[in-house]
Amino acid sequence: MKTLLIFIICFCLNSQGYSQIIGSLDKVTPFNDEFSAVKKGDKWGFINKNGTLVVDFRSDFVLNKTKSNNPHPIFVNERCLIKQLINDVSYYGFINTNGEKIIPATFLNASQFKDGYAIVSVLLKDSIGFNKVLQKSISSYEIEEYVIDKSGTRIKYLENPLNYNITKLKSQTPPKLRSKFIAPHLVAVLKKNQKWDIYKF
Q1: Rounded to an integer, what distance in angstroms lies between the CA atom of residue 103 and that of residue 122?
Q2: In angstroms, rounded to a whole number, what is the distance separating the alpha carbons of residues 66 and 54?
Q3: Measured by CB atoms within 10 angstroms of the end CB, which terminus of the chain is less buried, N or C?
Q4: Which domain does 110 fall in, by range?
């Protein structure tokens, strides 16, 4: 009887000590910003440090390139980049740590957040006339870059509009960002003359 009691106690302790939380994962990444990206099939999700799946598996994440050549999504400043295909054009936005779309996918490109801010590119359309022969309006397009905060509010216009050929939009390659953070509240902007200007925001 005593042996049976010891066996039952050991079995219960073993069961509690080695309980599986989540299984059958294809990839598990190091923790970044308190979350680890995990992959199942062709979808990614996120677990917290308790092993709880806090962002369900989905296929719209932007994969962050890493030194180990193991691209995966990451949270930075509680925001993770997502990509949405609309009319064959990729648009970028952000989710929060609950998996909610906190900043809609409306940008042609976006950087990861840094110190609470990100750089985004926005497509602007300007109607410049009407072609009577073809019976259609003529438009020009520009890309402008902004600094946004974690709610998506535009904090700083980076004063560097660039004419854009709309046919490039369907190439699935986003236009390269011409601005970069160099310190908290300082951003460097590469101008059309290939010279850098520094902005404070």
Answers
A1: 14
A2: 23
A3: N
A4: 76-200
pLDDT for 115-169, tens place per residue? 999 999 999 877 666 666 766 766 678 999 999 999 999 999 998 788 877 777 6
Distance of CA 26 to the CA centre of its chain: 21
Residue 55's pLDDT is 97
User: What DSSP string describes 37-67?
Assistant: EEEETTEEEEE-TTS-EEEEEES-BPPBP-T
Query: How far apart are alpha carbons 70 and 38 in whole angstroms?
Result: 12
Q: Would you say residue 56 lies in a domain?
A: no
What is the dihedral sign for C-alpha 76, 157, 151, 54?
negative
Q: Which helix (H) or strand (E) holds 9?
A: helix 2-17
Residues present in the chain in total? 201
SS3 89: strand
Residue 151 counted as domain residue: yes
